[in-house]
Amino acid sequence: MFQIMKRNRRTLSEYIFDNLNILIMLFLCFITIYPIWYVVVNSLNEGMDAMKGGIYWWPREFTLENYKAVFANKGIVTSFGITVAKTFIGTVCHVFFTAMVAYALSRKELRGRNIYMFIGVVTMFFSGGLIPYFLLLRDLGLLDNFLVYIIPALFNFFDLIIFVSFFRELPTSLEEAAKMDGASDIKIFLKVVIPLSMPVIATIALFHGVYQWNDYFAGVIFVNNPDLQPIQTYLYKVVAESSSNQMMTNAPGGVISKTVTSQSIKLATMVVTTVPIVLVYPFLQKYFVKGMLIGSIKG
User: Fold this and answer.
1) CATH for 65-292, among 1.10.3720.10, 3.90.400.10, 3.50.50.60, 3.40.50.720?
2) CA 99 to mean position of chain CA atoms
3) Which of 150, 219, 260, 295 could cross-link with 165 by S-S, CB 3.0 to 4.6 Å?
4) How far is residue 269's CA from residue 264's CA, in Å, rounded to a whole number?
5) Quick count: other Cβ atoms within 10 Å of Cβ 59?
6) What pTM was computed for the model?
7) Domain ranges across the chain
């Protein structure tokens, strides 16, 4: 008993080390969370008053006029719908297509499998550049087309590597049993492999869903139609503009509000575009950790 108590008793150096780790983690949490908190607080404060500065923890003059001005603009509502649609459709198509290709490359009987993998690895480090990519999308008729968000993002080789690592660990006996029952490769993929691969599917869906939600570049370069631009492109334009007179003109009453400023509009728009993906992320966090460990341990 004395030896057990002695082992459980921490030394002074261990006590200092543990508390130092706690302080460091609290500091890291603070510098990570506080910028978000600062944006939220200032977006909830009256715009002209916020320009005076000194708002760090709580709104000094609480108001929702900034958010009313944001949602009064029809452009942000349309952009939000485009973002939701492209995130959902793009994620589903990407996961299914990448998983299908990965399943084929995980089969040892596939001829030329190593060549395909080598070509894929090369594409991770080298690309043709933006201009050839733009010309290709133009020739395919994808400019100013909703499919420009879906088709080019159907496949990602990094996600394929994660899928392949997972599929290789699945018991081959399950596939052999399905083949003995007369199942084709497509049926095995849909009925056996996919149900067993939900952790890796959720992980890739999280990766690509966050990418689709945060992507603004495609809307800036390949889409000129404002009705097809996602909300992140809309936010990019708001932040890039020196003033938001057009947005504030659409505020309630149809006139520029004296309490709404360009800066307050930017902050409110940032909160609106960030909150949905932040709310979804915690539900997939457990799959994120498991997915990052896929392939690292055999057994």
Assistant:
1) 1.10.3720.10
2) 19
3) 295
4) 9
5) 16
6) 0.71
7) 2-43, 65-292
